[in-house]
Design brief:
By secondary structure, this protein is mostly beta strands. 8% of the residues lie in helices and 29% in strands. It has a single domain, classed as Ribonuclease Inhibitor (Leucine-rich repeat, LRR (right-handed beta-alpha superhelix), Alpha-Beta Horseshoe), CATH 3.80.10.
Length: 133
């Protein structure tokens, strides 16, 4: 966990590979100044809370290699500063929210090894832009 010096505001929460299990608490959506949420490589289950869409400062969302299930909440399309969204290797299903394709700052979107359908509108553009750099 990282906080700015002299502040009590959480900026980064990194709990990767800690054998965490259970569901993601919706209260994570209350960490208004969070920039990095790293919860990959655990045994987390259940849905991605829609409240994560409240994290207006979030730039990195890493949820890969868990057992998360259900749909990706459309509220993640509210994350205007999001640059990296990794949710591969879970049990997510349903359509990929079109709102993810409108995230102007999104650089990486990894959703492989799930049961998702559709394609984010900008996915090909993001991939092409990255390869040209």
């Amino acid at each position: 966990m990282t906080c700015d010096e002299g502040e009590t505001t959480v900026r980064e929460l990194n709990l990767a590979a800690n054998n965490l299990d259970g569901m993601l608490p919706s209260s994570l959506g209350n960490l208004a100044n969070l920039r990095v949420l790293e919860l990959s490589r655990n045994q987390l289950t259940g849905p991605i809370p829609a409240q994560l869409g409240n994290l207006a400062s979030l730039r990195h969302l890493r949820l890969h290699r868990n057992g998360l299930s259900g749909a990706i909440p459309g509220s993640l399309g509210n994350l205007a500063k999001l640059q990296y969204f990794f949710a591969s290797d879970n049990e997510l299903s349903g359509p990929i929210p079109a709102a993810l394709g409108h995230l102007a700052n999104l650089i990486y979107l990894y959703l492989s090894s799930n049961q998702l359908v559709g394609i984010a509108e900008r996915a090909h553009e993001v991939d092409r832009t990255h390869r040209e750099r």
